[in-house]
Every structure is written in structure tokens, then in C-alpha cells.
Amino acid sequence: MTEAVRFSKRYEDVGDTKSDGVTYTPRALANFVADRIVANKAPVSTRPVRLLDPAVGHGELLLALLARLDGPVEVYGFETDPEALEVARMRLSLEYPSALLKLRFGSFLDHVLDEFSGGLFGAAEKYDLIIANPPYVRTQIIGAERARLLSSQFGLTGRVDLYHAFLLGMGTVLASDGAAGFIVSNRFMTTKGGASARAGMINDLRLREVYDLGDTKLFEAAVLPAILIARGNGDEAQTPSFHSIYETRAEPEFTSKDVLTALEHEGAVAIPDGRAFLVQHGTLDNGNDPTGVWRLASEGVERWLDAVQQNTWSTFREIGKIRVGIKTCADKVFIPKAWDRELELHRPLTTHHTAQRFRPEPPHRKVLYPHHIVDGRKQAVNLAQYPASRAYLEEHRQTLEGRSYVIEAGREWYEIWVPQNPADWHAPKLVFRDICEQPTFWMDLEGTIVNGDCYWLTGDEDLLWLALGVANSTFIERFYDRRFNNKLYAGRRRFITQYVEQFPLPDPAGDSARAIIEACRDLYARLIDGPEPDLEKRIDEMVWAAFGLPVEEV
């Protein structure tokens, strides 16, 4: 065994995560990305091929790409970990001694922001091939000033990640006839914070392939990865292919040696460790909006969604505004796990701990809620009218006044930071959890206050009952997967505003919708005595029928 091989074997399967968001790339994934880049690259003239990895790590990605190239190469890279950079330099020089290495200690983005005004991102030379697994770090973690500079430079808005800036930067320095492969978190394909990065990928590059690797657990870190393969903007635009793979309980139709080779099939695929995955192939659809959510489109999926649209009267958005629950910024004061006294301002609190489909458990917790409505306006209560509550709050005054932003906003020191509208709590409410495998929506008829770990909406009561049936159906699981194409580990989904507000509703005046409403009311009443699986199943079947579709197993 040569010295180069011995040295590289020590780092062959790196996949560890550092506190700064760096996740080093496993070799199998590095090889897959390199293969796809080479398959999409254009021929280069006799000059050396220029390679870039803006976050080198141990050099795994560069090694994989160099193994697939012939002829002279110049290797450029940046790395903020000096030990990792030295490992990469040693590995590359041992295995590819003829390659010209231009590796730098420092941040690719700092290099751009601090040293250049039109350098890398202006008239600088471009790179023929780029391969990258940029760090996943929210901009608020790297500091307000650096976040501001990045946002200004790259047009980033909202809750964004450092890798969004990397994507936009790399897109700018890729040669017009170059090719690139990026390993990213799949979150950016569907979140509001990822909109500017999605637009950059569409406008500045020519995307060719998108791979949503879902819950394959290719990294030890809790990252659901995606791979983007692109050409430079001198290439002709075309609709990118879209491939997804997620764990499934379906009976496997095929077997494969690992997750990545499973992508060669379509359908349920088993791998040797006992897991099975659903592999789907199609094209990328963003609704013809560069900032739009990315999802997998295929002829069958489009027919299915068209059928849903034809039977859709409106969406959950039209019932009312979806809100998150209260945010106290002092839960130990307002929502302790146990109260040692009864207070006049106690109100029952709904949390995710009482969540059940259709009808929740009775509230276990109470919140001290010092807000009410006066002449149609939300106000803090006059504590003089609530002596026991006042005494309790005075005991914790120092803690509450420590929330300086409350006082600076012109509020009373004892207020809840986000109390929502006190007038809405007494109305019937549709409440739901954020992250769960099976949709968990329930009706609150008890006038409880909803905590910040749940979402809720209120409006016309019949529409709420109809929405309850639709939201808890297997139909909505299928709709979610086909419309939003976004899952977490173990099949869990995120039921957040941007998705739920798009859930469809059948015509509430129609016979099928009226039947769903009455069945949901009946189920709610019966659940006080225990589960009613047969009635739940009947409601589920009614929802599928209301949208003109046969029941599918989910």
C-alpha cells in the first residue's frame, strides 16, 4: 500500500459534524456528485482545468473529482479549519502531485466581502468545475454585522443559512460553459428563507439535475441533504430533472446495494440494512416563479393535482389567518410546570402535550394571562383588580422587567410578549401541531389559550369542521407530499403556515362536504368515550370522494 493510499484511508469515510456547521462529506456521496458533474461538463481546451471547492474540509470532494479527470488541473479552495486544510493539502499532493494546488486558509465569503470589490464576483477568472458541501449555519449565529453584509451582497432576506450565500457566490464564479455540483440541505427548496437562493439557482445557472436525498441518513448529522447539478449560464436553459428518495413502509419491488444506487430504480427499493425507500423521478416544478417552492412533477402527479384543483372550492387561507400560539418570553413565570396557588388570571392552556386528532385531551396546564379586550382593543389588565395575580407577578418583577424589549415597546412590564387577540380565544378554534408523522388537527371548543408550540385559526364554524376532516385525512398526507415534496426523518412532516394555508377545501354547500361536517361533529362528541376508528375511516373515505379521487394507501 502506497503512502498516499495509507494516508487517504484514514479519512475515507469522514462524515463528522463540527460546531460551526461543517459536515464533512462521506466518500460515496462525494463520488456520486463527482460522477454527475463529469457527466454534465463541457470539453475544456488544452489549458489546465480550473477546479474550486469553497469549503475544502478534508478534501474528499476534490479527490473524488480529480479521480475522474485527465490532463493538467489547477485546484482552488478555501477552508477555515487549519488542521483540516493541512489534511486536504497532504492528501491532494500525495495522490495528485502534478496538480497545481492553490488552497487558502480563510473563508470563501470573507475573501469576497473583505478583499474584493468586483474581484471574485466581478472581473475575476471563472472556474470550469465547482464541487462543494458548504457549511449549514444560520446567519444569526455568525453575528449581526456579518449577516448584514451577506444579506446586502447576495440579496438574502428572512431566516437564511450561510450556505445560501455560498450558493449564490459560487453561481457567480462558475464559467459560462462550466459545471458544478452542490450538496445542500433540502430545506432551502421549500422554505421562505430559501427563496433568494432558489431564484439565484434559476437565474444565474442552468440547473440540470436535482436530487432530494430526504431521510437517507447519509450524514451522521441531522441534515436532510439534496444535490444540485448545474451548468454555467452560457448553456441553453431546460427543465431540470428531479429525483427524490424517502424511507417507506411499502413492500419493496427492487433491491439495491445502497441508497445512492437505489436511485437507478423507480418505486420501493430495499437495501441490505433492512430499510426500504420510495424512489421517484420527474422534473422540477416551481410554478414558473424563480422564488417558488421546488417540487417533483410528473405526468401522474400533475393529473392527480389537476383533479384536486377541479374539486377545490377554496383553501384554508380563506377561513382565517393561521397564527402561532402565545409567546411569553418568560415561561417559568407565566407557564410553570406546576402552580402552587390559584390566581384570578389563570386560563386553561392548550399545548402539544394534549394533542389528539379531532378532540384533544383536557388541558393539563394553566397560563397566567394578563390581557383582555376594552372597546375592541387589546389591553393589559389593571392588576389592582386582581390582587392574587398582582402579588405573584410582583414576586417575579425583576425577571419580567429583564425583558427590556417589552418596556421599550411601550408595554406594561407584566405583559406576555405575544398574547395574540384575547377576543379570539373564546371562539371555536382549529388547532394543530407542527412536526408529526400523521397530521394532528383538533377542535378547541373550550376557549383555551394556545401555546406557542401549536398553530391555530378561527373563523366560520362549519368551515372549521370541514377543515378538520380534510386536515386529518390520508388525502391531505398525499396532497402534502405531492404538492410540497418536503419531509423530515422517519416520514414526519412540518405542518406550518406556508403549507397548511394552501390545503384545499371542497364546496361547503355540496352534499359531500355537508356530510363531512356532520360526521366530524359526531366524531368529536363520541371521542369523549374513547376511540372511534370506524367513523374516522369513514370520514377519511368521504374526504377522498369529495375531491373526486379513489382512496389511496399512504
Q: Given the C-alpha coordinates, what overall shape results?
A: globular
Percent strand equals 15-25%
What's the end-to-end separation, in Å? 51 Å
Biggest sheet details: 12 strands, mixed
Radius of gyration, in Å, reads: 27 Å
Report what the structure shows.
This protein is of the alpha/beta class. The protein is 33% helix and 21% strand. The chain contains 20 helices and 25 strands. Strands 1, 2, 3, 4, 5, 6, 7, 8, 9, 10, 11 and 12 form a twelve-stranded mixed β-sheet that branches. It has a four-stranded antiparallel β-sheet with strand order 14-23-19-21, covered by helices on one side. A three-stranded mixed β-sheet has the order 16-15-22, with no helix packed on it. α1 (3-9) packs antiparallel against α4 (82-95) and α16 (461-471) packs across α19 (511-526). It is globular and about 85 Å long. The chain starts with a helix and ends in an 8-residue tail after the last helix. 41% of the residues are buried. Mean pLDDT is 89; it is low at 1-22 and 115-123.
